[in-house]
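From the pipeline queue, job 12 of 40. The input is one protein chain; the requested action is below.

Action: predict structure.
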Amino acid sequence: MTNSDTIGQRVLWTLLMLMLAPLAFAAEFWDLPPEVPPQQYGNILINRLSEKNAVKPVSFSHWLHRRKYTCRVCHFELEFNMQANTTEITEAANRKGQFCGNSGCHDGVKSFGHNDVADCNKCHNGDTNYSKERFASLAKLPKAEHGNKIDWGMALNRGLVVPKKYLAVKPDPLVTFKETLVLESEWQGIPPAIFSHTPHVWQLDCSNCHPDLFNVKKKTTQHFTMVANLQGEFCGVCHMKVAFPMADCKRCHPAMQ
């Protein structure tokens, strides 16, 4: 090997390190939460009232439901808050057709209901790994590096999952906001985040984000930082526990190498 070859290799290696530096820096600097097994990502325990009433917490799997329904169905039409354990869900309300007991959900017709004791453990099991055997049915969906290890957006675009957008309340067909926002990074060397409204409008109602999480007027939201996101605010309401996690840096910062 000639001296010029050695120098060339060093230059290439240096360039490669410089390209990878922002991503490595982000991963090392930020206090990213540990990743759980793919079959558990998006699974939560609902325990606002369960243990107070001497029953096990409810385990809820987002990946199990997102194949069938958009986020809007639960977090707009059925009136579940975006934050877990902040909605006053009761067994009495479910039996009256509210929340999970809504017609078209766990009403005893579309899916198991609330009247057969044999079905109680399907929800009240206190185990976020309860449905792990069913995760294998998603094996053919497009792959991702983090979270469930599933690229749900690609699966949706390819028609591999076709979730219902409503049960009774149709989305307004006139709401087709498609603006893409470029959000400059607060850290030198980190490229901007690119936010597209299109996939979010498809899944959510505008009121899920505005005005509680973000002001409607651009660039008027205060304290929007990466630290706040990692603490479960703003984008972190979804992109920490259900949608792809913050560790998947390039999904928001596509120019990051």
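Job complete. Residues 38-135 form a domain with the Cytochrome C3 fold (CATH 3.90.10.10).
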